[in-house]
Amino acid sequence: MSDxxxxxxNRGPYYGVFDLFKIGIGPSSSHTVxxxxxxxEFLAELSASGLFDQIARVQVDLYGSLALxxxxxxxxxxxxxxxxxxxxxxxxxxxxxxxxxRIRTAQELRLAGRRPITFREESDLVFNRTVFLxxxxxxxxxxxxxxxxxxxxxxxxxxxxxxxGFVVRAEELNSNRTPPVRQLPYFFASARDLLKLAxxxxxxxxxx
Length: 208
Prior knowledge:
Blueprint: H1 17-20, H2 29-48, E1 57-64, H3 65-68, H4 75-83, H5 96-106, E2 108-111, E3 115-118, H6 121-124, E4 125-128, E5 138-145, E6 155-163, E7 166-169, H7 170-175, H8 191-201
């Protein structure tokens, strides 16, 4: 498609405008969008591991800053919506109150919008206000259980909402590995480069 260099050496990871400026519910990208995305990551892990259909209960633990400001920043609502498979950039904000009321009245949510499981918010969403996980103040842990009794979880995953709606797993945060370089069809490092690319490909800046 283009003979422009796809990636430049000695540079960090690349982020697009919609990576940095995310569409999502408020009031906080790190306390609302991030936890909703973390719930989505957990659902993806359940599916990838073949455990999704075995889940009867999910417990969510909020740590540190997420727990301290969780109610004010709607972290609790974001987690519930995320477990139901909602996406922060696609959910209708006007529908959230009704969906939350349904979950809280029935004490049940539909995991990924498909699998009904018991969810008692007072015991299944835990605010650990005095506990800060090592690595980042915005910690959240999801534990999936195969039965509704006090048996060990069949999957436990911890994430950190690191700001701007970005979410990383605890293992990734602690590994110190270099993030993979995203290959770009049109690399530019200056306004002059951008202008040349636009002229060469007969397209606008926004198209690039």
